[in-house]
Amino acid sequence: MNQRTYRILLTQEPEGGYTVNVPALPGCITYGNDITHAMSMAREAIELYVETLQAEGDLIPDDSRTLEYSLVVGL
Fold first, then answer.
1. Phi then psi dihedrals of residue 55, to 5 deg
2. Is 29 exposed, middle or buried (0-12, 13-18, 19+ CB in 10 A)?
3. Which of 15, 20, 60, 72 could form a disulfide with 42 if both were Cys (CB 3.0 to 4.6 A apart)?
4. Which among 46, 14, 5 has a CA at the least distance from the CA of 27?
5. pLDDT for the residue numbered 33
6. What is the pLDDT of residues 6-56, one digit of tens each?
7. pTM score of the predicted model
8. Is 43 helix (H, G, I), strand (E, B) or coil?
9. Is pLDDT at 1 greater than 80 in this prediction?
10. CA angle, 51 as apex, 50 and 56 as ends, to 5°?
11. What is the pLDDT of residue 75?
């Protein structure tokens, strides 16, 4: 089994819960009631997305070579 690395972005929604986006996999978006649920849903969504890519013979992107930083800038 090959391991791949994926960056996920969690956005807290005003009505509650978190929307999850996987930038390396366009359209791979899911939702969780809390962070733990959102992470579980993200793993499931990524696995299904990658299975579909494999079945179609497409390349499988990942974020193994991506570095990410956050900057706080006062304006």
1. -65, -30
2. middle
3. 20
4. 46
5. 97
6. 999 999 999 999 999 999 999 999 999 999 999 999 999 999 999 999 999
7. 0.86
8. helix
9. no
10. 95
11. 85
Burial (CB count within 10 angstroms: exposed 0-12, middle 13-18, buried 19+), residue 2: exposed
Inter-CA distances, 39 with 12, 27, 31, 72, Å: 13, 17, 9, 25
The residue to which tokens 């969504």 are assigned: 45
Written as one letter, the residue type at 30 is T
For 63, list phi and psi in degrees, rounded to 5: -110, 25
16 within 8 A of 2, measured Cβ to Cβ = no
Strands in the chain per DSSP E: 9-12, 18-21, 29-32
